[in-house]
Amino acid sequence: MIRLATIGTSGITERFADAVAGVDGIRIDVAYSRDAARARAFADRLGIAGATTDLAALLRSGEIDAVYVGSPNGAHAAQVRDAIDAGIHVFVEKPATPTAGEFADLVGAARDRGVVVFEGMRNVYDPGMAQVAALLPRIGRVRLVSFGQSQYSARYDLVLAGETPNIFDPALAGGALFDLGVYPLSAVVHLFGTPASVAGSTVTVATGADGAGAALLTYPEFVAQVSFSKIGFSHRPNEIQGELGTIEIDEITRPREIALSLRDGTRTAEHVDGAENNMVYEVARFADLIRGDDPTPDQERSLAVLRAVEAIHRKDA
Fold first, then answer.
1. Is residue 250 very low, low, confident or very high in pLDDT (cuts 50, 70, 90)?
2. Which domains does the chain have, with CATH numbers?
3. With 70 as the cut, is the pLDDT of residue 116 above it?
4. pTM above threshold 0.85
5. For residue 143, what are the CA distances in angstroms to 104, 206, 245, 247, 301?
């Protein structure tokens, strides 16, 4: 049994806990928060036995094998490093770190310590994404990819009121690119590999964080357009256009409705069955990595996405 602790008490950590409950061989034993009452309340609400405010002691207690880092983005790197140094496997919520260099250092440290560091990216492990990959040969040579994720954030209302919530705080690596843009970026890299070049730009909100943006990823034979926003919304389909046909995908974070349209006029649509909470697939992958699967492909994808994020941010500098 893989014994987990959680760092963070937000909604995403609750969703992670729900996913863990659906995977055999892994469980959450301890909840950590800097606030004792919050840690205990979170643990009681989710049926977790332990709660603590002493992270250093927890990591060296021998009572856990792995930790989930669901704290604000800007705190990830230090907490992941502490866990690695203690010989603890780490599942870190996306984005793993603000920069590719930080994550590369953590990957090297984990390798030296003999533990796994893994960035959660739920869409690339979803069965719907596997079905998209299986359809790619049907559309011939890929020429244009267009993926996006736009979802209006209620916390933007706080920004408009003059506040700086964590998700829009640049000091905590907040913003639409880190929160939502990494999903379509990860999907592109997962399906097609590392791009030859990345260019993009973002729209800055009052806090100094990005609220929306777009990027162009260049490959030898095609280009991929990526868009993202937390200050607007969209329900447009995602597309992969090939010379023989086009694949349409309903939701890039959770592909369920996938349509194939061929140049001869043939069109087929299918529904992909999958878990309502598709974090279950990334939790299962993490467990497999702890049991001995090679984490290198997962880590290389995360690094490629973080490098793309850096390229987009540089354009705005």
1. very high
2. 2-119 (3.40.50.720), 123-274 (3.30.360.10)
3. yes
4. yes
5. 31, 37, 10, 12, 21
